[in-house]
Amino acid sequence: MELGSVILTTGSSVALFKLVNAGIGRLHIPESASRNVWKWRNISTSFVHSFITAIWAVLCFFRHPQMAEDLIETYSVFSHALVSLSIGYFIYDFLDMVCNQKLIQCWELLFHHVVVITCFGLSVVSCRYVGFSVVALLVEINSVFLHLRQILRMASMAASTLYRVNSIINLGTYVVFRINTLAWMTRWLVLNRDKIPLLAYTLGSVGMAIMTVMNIILFCRLLRSDFLKSSTREAKKEKEM
């Protein structure tokens, strides 16, 4: 894959998500979310990316199952385009946060985006580890429910049945598609150490370590916010009765 094609695909992706964000701004915004319109549009755009990527990543392995047997060299134009699209999204989201938020509010996400852009960039430019990158994008299956959770909270629907059901699915998919996927990817890196150049191995190992720590912290926050706090409130109500 030529560098020009990568730049064109990635640049088109940046423009696409900019248009998605603008389109969301023209739709109805809940009154409770009108206090922070930028955040509503940003999360909704992230939801769109996750929805597209989750389906696309699964289709990559469905259409080209041989890629699962060789995550280093084997890839398709379809899977390469997915990784390039995601790089474009992360570049767009990085710029969107830099322009609209204070650094202290978003430094964790900015750091996450830099790591992802670097790792995915190495993959699409070298045309190696594309399959590994697609495995990483399977976490977007959980991101669909993670972003929907934020959307429901901003729409003042945190007490609804829909929110409760989404919270359960969110936590379940978090374990399966985030924690388990990261654990499998780390194991794969270790087992294939001899096949991977030192630079790529170091970059991958550091990236995985950072992602693992960030995801464990986020999991604890979700568990405390959606389950432990609600259990405490219910216990207090029972004591008052």
Structural notes for this entry:
The C terminus is likely disordered. The longest helix has 43 residues. The chain has 241 residues and is mostly helical. Helix 6 runs antiparallel to helix 7. It has one domain. The chain is 81% helix and 0% strand. The termini are far apart. 31% of the residues are buried. The chain is globular.
Counting DSSP H or I runs of 4 or more residues, the number of helices is 8
Strand content: under 5%
Q: What structural class results from the helix and strand content?
A: mainly alpha
Name the overall outline: globular
Q: Would you identify the regions where 5 or more consecutive residues have pLDDT less than 50?
A: 234-241
Query: What count of domains describes the coordinates?
Result: 1
Q: What about the largest sheet?
A: none
How widely separated are the two ends?
67 Å
Q: Helix-strand pattern, N to C?
A: HHHHHHHH
CA-atom Rg in angstroms: 19 Å
Number of strands: 0
Relative helix content: over 70%
Mean pLDDT across the residues is 90
Keywords: Membrane, Transmembrane, Transmembrane helix
Membrane topology: Multi-pass membrane protein
GO biological process, one term: membrane assembly
Domain TLC: 35-231
